């Protein structure tokens, strides 16, 4: 029986896991993200002990996942110290001598959710420290010349938010600048977890997230949109986002069942990425 | 040698054409859009005289192009009197007894431009009386559950345009509400063709169109974006749009050659739709 590897490469930890053909986790290990060299060494050690037939990596970004590029397999310019312009794929592929699939963390999550929801046309957004997104059309990732950067789209300002400049260093008040976790503290001076659920801030956040879903609905026409990430852990957020989405759409496109259309991830703690990676690793061998 | 049919179904005219395997137009006829029954009768008469092996229709919308739908082949709710909820495909397919491909007018144009630019990852926008768009990824139209409605995405307001409400009956100040042809006259009281090229209005329009390209760049990552439609016929517009796009992007994603990335259509008078239809009709037989 073949076993498959998953690496969720994040800025604070690398989650390595081994799964079987039923996507069950056989074993896993959390490796802290330290220096590039040491982290890769520990990842390779884990998979030299726990042998697998192929691996998929879902990485923090930006990354180069264009197979025709000189820098294929690299993490590109990242604020994470010591991790800009490093080759993530080659040192693992060379050491373990197995096929490695390389994509973004959100693509891995989207692929897992595609499987868990039996839905091959969907969009996955993560709304946390940053905002990222993935689009799957007929089981394929959308992205002509590179991975998507849906978090930085332009949005219309909320009337109560006109004076807030946004926190994106590139675009100030793009979606990420206005609706990511850090924007909450920047706007109010209070950490998100200390803001009561009746604060106007949540409604402002929901308005921006609803615009992202609205735009994605018109530009992609998916069957389903999944909203993950820390900001969506607030119980009241999903309902607020749906309410704003309905107002924005104004019946222009009919969504039969909004509760089936806008959802949070099927499994908690981002495990959809692990399952997505197992499936992407399996696909390398087919 | 097979011949192929193209029908560009518009609100004022139906352009019927016959092409050969080299996409050369053999003959064509402009049929005014009168009543539904009379227009279909004239279309069928044209193709009964000028025989073809298959036909592609690129239609004004909204349409139902979901093959699993009861209303597949229909024009849906349109402001065009007498044309709401009419079946465009069946009466043609039945009378001529040949395969018929049914899509949006912008999809036909995008497909023609894909061929003319040898580029299978592109976006086509038409900016005229309305705003529509098409996305092609690896030679396939993007659109999970129906055709795209990219014209209605939300955009950030231009500082000089804060008091303008927009002309979209559904969303007021969405992209179409702020940047379509009719928005120009609604904003100024003057028809677009009578506004000098140094008016601030063009810069406002370009700002919105640039946002549409910016969002599409982040959400799709295409190789190329083609801008068609009446508003883009103004010679100075393309340059303005590129300038705003550069400002918005702020080097977040590097576009190697902006002049190759943002372009107007390869051939004039919307002939890319005819070529797109010939190719889509050919594909039905392959």
From TrEMBL, chains A, B:
The keyword Glycoprotein does not apply. One of its GO terms (molecular function) is fructokinase activity. It catalyses: D-fructose + ATP = D-fructose 6-phosphate + ADP + H(+). It holds the Pfam family ROK. Its cofactor is Mg(2+). The keyword rRNA processing does not apply. InterPro entries: ATPase_NBD, Carb_Metab_Reg_Kinase/Isom, ROK, ScrK. Keywords: Aminotransferase, ATP-binding, Carbohydrate metabolism, Kinase, Magnesium, Metal-binding, Nucleotide-binding, Transferase, Zinc. Its EC number is 2.7.1.4. It comes from the Bacteria. NCBIfam families: FrctkaseScrK. Belongs to the ROK (NagC/XylR) family. PANTHER family: FRUCTOKINASE, TRANSCRIPTIONAL REPRESSOR MPRA. This is fructokinase.
